[in-house]
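User: Here's a structure from my thesis project, written as structure tokens. My advisor, Dr. K., wants to see whether a designed sequence matches the one we expressed. Can you design one independently, without my sequence as a hint?
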């Protein structure tokens, strides 16, 4: 059982604050790796997840990408940190939380992609100008900031 599960066992569904990391992985064709989630079914998101005790935000990013895709990443560059009302989530089981999201970008990845089917339906490199409409709402500002900060140079 991970930190989040242990915490939930102690406090139930009441609102909590968590720290997470997501990573925009860009290939040399101006495409970014997006995750097609199992929940909500078929929605798209930037891959990442929540911090475990003792991790740095960079370690969280690397672990989550490895767990979800089997890819190893390096040379993380901070896009921005996101928090507030737009990062409120209420799960179907009633769990409520706010996430402080540390969004990173990298072009440095290696390995054979293997999808962790417990969380994902698919992963796909998608052109930065063709981001799906059903992208997680809180991830849209991350894509926009990434384009403004790294793609306009």
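Assistant: Designed independently from the structure alone:
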């Amino acid at each position: 059982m991970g930190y989040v599960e242990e915490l939930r066992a102690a406090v139930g569904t009441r609102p909590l604050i968590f720290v997470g990391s997501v990573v925009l992985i860009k290939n040399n064709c101006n495409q970014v790796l997006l995750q097609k989630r199992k929940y909500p079914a078929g929605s798209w998101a930037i891959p990442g997840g929540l911090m475990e005790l003792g991790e740095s935000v960079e370690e969280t990013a690397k672990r989550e990408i490895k767990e979800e895709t089997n890819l190893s990443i390096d040379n993380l560059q901070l896009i921005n940190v996101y928090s507030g009302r737009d990062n409120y989530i209420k799960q179907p089981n009633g769990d409520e939380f706010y996430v402080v999201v540390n969004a990173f970008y990298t072009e440095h990845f290696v390995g054979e992609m293997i999808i962790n089917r417990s969380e994902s339906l698919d992963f796909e490199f998608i052109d930065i100008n063709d981001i799906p409409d059903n992208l997680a709402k809180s991830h849209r500002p991350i894509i926009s900031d990434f384009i403004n900060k790294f793609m306009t140079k």
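When you compare it with your expressed construct, this may help: The chain has one domain: 3-151.
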